[in-house]
Amino acid sequence: MKRIMTKKYLYSPWRIDYILGEKPDDCVMCRAMASQQDQENLIVYRAKFSYIMLNRYPYNNGHLMIVPYVHKSALNDLDLQTWQEVTELIRVCEKAFKLAYHPEGINIGINLGSAAGAGIAEHVHIHMVPRWNADSNFMSVIGGERVIPEAFESTFNKLRDAILRVMNDNG
Questions:
Q1: Can you give the pTM of this predicted structure?
Q2: DSSP 3
Q3: How many domains, the chain?
Q4: For the chain: N or C, fewer Cβ within 10 A?
Q5: Which of 63, 123, 125, 127 is catalytic?
Q6: Residue 91 lies in a domain
Q7: Which residue from 69, 61, 22 is spatially nearest to 43, judged by alpha carbons?
Q8: How far is CA 51 from the centre of its chain?
Q9: 71 counts as catalytic
Q10: What whole-number distance in Å separates Cα of residue 120 and Cα of residue 141?
Q11: Band of the pLDDT at 116, cuts 50, 70, 90?
């Protein structure tokens, strides 16, 4: 019996405003890092060599990014201490997602270069997205709009508190 494979596609038409919108001359990640307005810039945690922030254009509720302080476009340009801290923060975020959201899965992704899908190719960062079975609903599939059911402020507080709890438990 011949088995037919069907392809599934991830569509994100709500991001077109970001893609086609005017881009600043400076690096938005460096600008957010340099500012002391962490909540305004959606930075939920600062470590020694990197920080964790909410994605302003999320694919799903709780979409985080782990960003090294150093402005580099490639993983191989990060020093060992920075890379080790970034990978440890991936583990911290996994635990924080489980505490705060109880996801059924987590996507972890790194897009190196604009051809690979990096919206900010000049500053390497890692995406983490909590996922639930059937979390894409008719609004994104049919209507081309994404429904994020929680306000940034609530997500910020929930994930900041969960990350701090994980860090204290690990300490």
A1: 0.79
A2: P
A3: 1
A4: N
A5: 125
A6: yes
A7: 69
A8: 11
A9: no
A10: 26
A11: confident
